[in-house]
Task: inverse folding
């Protein structure tokens, strides 16, 4: 498929320019307040060292907006190195000072894929967290193909009734967008099967598993208005198939991706911050599950942008509204420009199916 070849080609060129990273350089951690299922709690965020997302390393070339793989080693890592680095990061924070904490483990790909994170390292990490005694929620990310009964059962036997959330990058309810514009390689059906499995095994075995969906705001070849409508429709779809929480990820321009190539050619712009506010406000009014809005890159040249007067203020308001799920109310002179963009941006949009757009 053209989109796969193109993504793979761009990815390979990015790898040629990539500087080698050691497992220690890949890992990172920070400790913040975050919204958990039981309210606002301290949360440890930990990026584990991994070779990188198998979908991005494989023939498909990965997703058109993501370059997390470029921050990874690209080579398998020994379990003992992963565990040494994990324990080093754990010791940096006063975790024992809190009654309840949550831990978010990022694998720059799929935590549940044993190629990216070997089973022995995964089990040991989970056992360490369980033994801390005050970890009430563990959150990981995975593509749906690694959400299997076997893996979930292995995890459930370790974590017991601790809340364990699997976050899946659904990105959109629209299969056409997900397959041909994001190059995600799976369908709604695959996603629903994974969500059902997470809930079924949880109910049958007495675990406390939850499913979260990431929603990507403004994939390539979508106008500003289409991006808003599709994100809201995706939230409604997620609620209808039993997703427990939502996290909206507005586009930022990652280096070495197809989205970056289009952006450099003036053929793509990340969403307005107003669009993301419109989405989160609408979803919080109409969809009955908690919804978070990621503000990474907000106000930067490569991220969602309004104007210099309101970028920062809106970012702060969004971060605090994530904690109490409130509606964001704010105004700025630039809102009229956004409204004009929303009503006019697809006026001269080509109706040509993107497969035939000359991308090279
Ligand atoms: S978005 Fe997820 S599946 Fe896609 S390339 Fe990035 S890490 Fe891999
Ligand atoms: Zn403004």
Result:
């Amino acid at each position: 498929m053209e989109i796969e070849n193109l993504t793979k080609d761009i990815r390979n060129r990015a790898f040629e320019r990539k500087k080698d990273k050691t497992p220690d350089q890949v890992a990172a951690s920070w400790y913040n307040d975050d919204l958990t299922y039981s309210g606002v709690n301290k949360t440890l965020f930990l990026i584990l060292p991994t070779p990188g997302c198998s979908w991005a390393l494989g023939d498909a070339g990965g997703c058109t907006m993501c370059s997390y793989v470029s921050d990874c080693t690209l080579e398998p890592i020994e379990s003992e190195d992963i565990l040494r680095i994990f324990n080093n990061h754990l010791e940096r924070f006063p975790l024992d000072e809190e009654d309840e904490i949550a831990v978010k483990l990022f694998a720059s790909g799929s935590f549940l894929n044993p190629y990216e994170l070997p089973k022995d390292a995964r089990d040991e990490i989970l056992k360490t967290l369980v033994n801390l005694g005050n970890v009430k929620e563990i959150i990981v990310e995975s593509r749906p193909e690694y959400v299997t009964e076997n893996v979930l059962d292995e995890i459930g036997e370790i974590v017991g009734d601790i809340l364990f959330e699997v976050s899946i990058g659904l990105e959109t309810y629209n299969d056409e967008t997900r397959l041909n514009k994001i190059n995600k390689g799976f369908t709604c059906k695959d996603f629903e099967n994974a969500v059902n499995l997470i809930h079924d095994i949880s109910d049958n075995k007495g675990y406390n598993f939850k499913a979260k969906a990431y929603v990507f705001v403004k994939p390539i070849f979508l106008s500003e208005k289409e991006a808003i409508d599709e994100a809201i429709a995706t939230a409604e779809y997620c609620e209808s198939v039993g997703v427990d929480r939502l996290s909206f990820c507005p586009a930022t321009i990652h280096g070495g991706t197809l989205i970056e190539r289009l952006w450099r050619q003036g053929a793509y712009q990340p969403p307005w911050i107003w669009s993301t506010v419109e989405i989160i406000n609408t979803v919080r009014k109409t969809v009955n599950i908690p919804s978070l809005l990621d503000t990474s890159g907000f106000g930067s040249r490569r991220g969602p942008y309004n104007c210099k007067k309101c970028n920062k203020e809106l970012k702060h308001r969004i971060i605090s509204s994530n904690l109490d799920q409130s509606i964001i109310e704010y105004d700025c002179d630039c809102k009229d420009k956004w409204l004009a963009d929303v009503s006019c941006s697809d006026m001269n949009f080509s109706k040509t199916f993107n497969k035939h757009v000359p991308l090279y």
